[in-house]
Design goal:
Blueprint: H1 8-27, H2 31-45, E1 66-69, E2 74-79, H3 91-103, E3 107-110, H4 134-151, E4 156-160, H5 166-175, E5 195-197, E6 199-202, E7 206-209, H6 219-227, E8 230-233, E9 240-245, E10 250-255, H7 265-268, E11 281-288, E12 291-292, E13 296-302, E14 305-308, E15 311-314
Parallel strand pairs: 1-6, 2-3, 3-4, 4-5, 7-8, 8-10
Antiparallel strand pairs: 2-11, 6-7, 9-10, 11-12, 11-13, 13-14, 14-15
Length: 315
């Protein structure tokens, strides 16, 4: 329900100046209600209402597609490659939700490819394989990310775009370019609580993005060596931490694995049931006095268990 004393025009002006948290405080609403009203207004008027730079954002270092944050102390949870399909809730996803509740992260990152886009892939179908429709996938993505939103209610939620995520808009831009900027034609329109970007930078030390400029089996090492920054990526589903030390410092190449089951239906047909050097899990980053501690991996052991810090945890 809209705030009775705040017309749309005033709401837009307040939101542009103060963002979701500030708007909620000034209008006596909760933040979820603010995001819902923002979405309704955008649909009603056919516009987009941008949020201002956060006070945690480094003013002057913000680039299109880049979100820059300061974090002196706290936890960042990073998962990605959920490739969410209807009716499937993976072990890694359940663990991610559990860790959102127990670790209470300041920032949660869905590092690309929550949406798979099976029916709008550039790859032709194999025989008459059964793939979920776009709406079925979208509903699954909204349901799974909704679980994360609820578990990490106070965390800032960041979503670097993945190559599979891009299929949603690439398909529309190809077949219906006239509908550019119409509400609903962008993937982020369907997930209003998540801030979309190409990359997220923390303390100008850590770069989080779906995939880096380097490819191949040594991409994690090569990305951090070339970038001069700790590089946290997904895309390869490899789940590993590779330290790299030079005259400047020790930094890390990190692959966050996949929140999906590597042997799930998303990957079965195109991999022709071959083994895959993929691992299911996600990554925990901890910051102390503005400095990144060694990244930690949460790895799936079986359908009910993950391992973390030498412990087996049921999920």
């Amino acid at each position: 329900m809209s705030h009775p004393l705040c017309p749309d025009a005033d709401f837009i002006a307040i939101f542009k100046q103060y963002g979701p948290a500030g708007t909620a405080k000034r209008l006596g609403m909760n933040e979820r209600a603010v995001h819902k009203r923002r979405t309704r207004i955008e649909k009603r008027h056919g516009i987009q209402i941008p949020a201002p730079h956060s006070r945690n954002t480094r003013v002057g270092s913000e680039h299109p597609g880049r979100i820059c944050l300061d974090l002196q102390a706290g936890v960042v949870l990073i998962g990605g490659d959920g490739h969410y399909w209807p009716g499937i809730v993976s072990t890694a996803h359940r663990a991610f939700v559990k860790f959102c509740k127990t670790l209470k992260p300041q920032i949660v990152v869905m590092n690309g490819d929550a949406f798979d886009g099976a029916t709008i892939s550039r790859h032709p179908p194999i025989g008459w394989e059964n793939r979920p429709s776009v709406i079925e996938e979208m509903e699954a993505v909204q349901e799974r990310l909704g679980e994360i939103e609820k578990a990490a209610f106070k965390a800032r939620k960041i979503w670097p775009l993945g190559n599979h995520d891009a299929r949603f808009e690439t398909r529309l831009a190809t077949v219906a370019p006239e509908y550019a900027r119409v509400h609903g034609f962008h993937l982020k329109d369907h997930l209003p609580l998540w801030e979309s970007c190409w990359s997220c930078w923390i303390n100008d030390e850590v770069v989080i993005k779906h995939r880096g400029p380097k490819g191949g089996v040594h991409a994690v090492h090569n990305n951090t060596m070339a970038a001069g920054k700790t590089m946290v990526t997904n895309h390869l589903h490899s789940l590993k931490v590779t330290p790299y030390t030079d005259y400047n410092d020790t930094r890390f190449g990190v692959d966050c694995g996949t929140l999906a089951d590597p042997n799930g239906p998303q990957f079965l047909d195109y991999s022709e049931d071959n083994f895959k050097n993929h691992r299911s899990g996600f990554v925990v980053l901890t910051f102390r006095s503005g400095k990144l501690m060694w990244p930690e991996v949460v790895a799936v052991v079986d359908q009910e268990t993950v391992q973390f810090r030498g412990e087996l945890i049921k999920v």
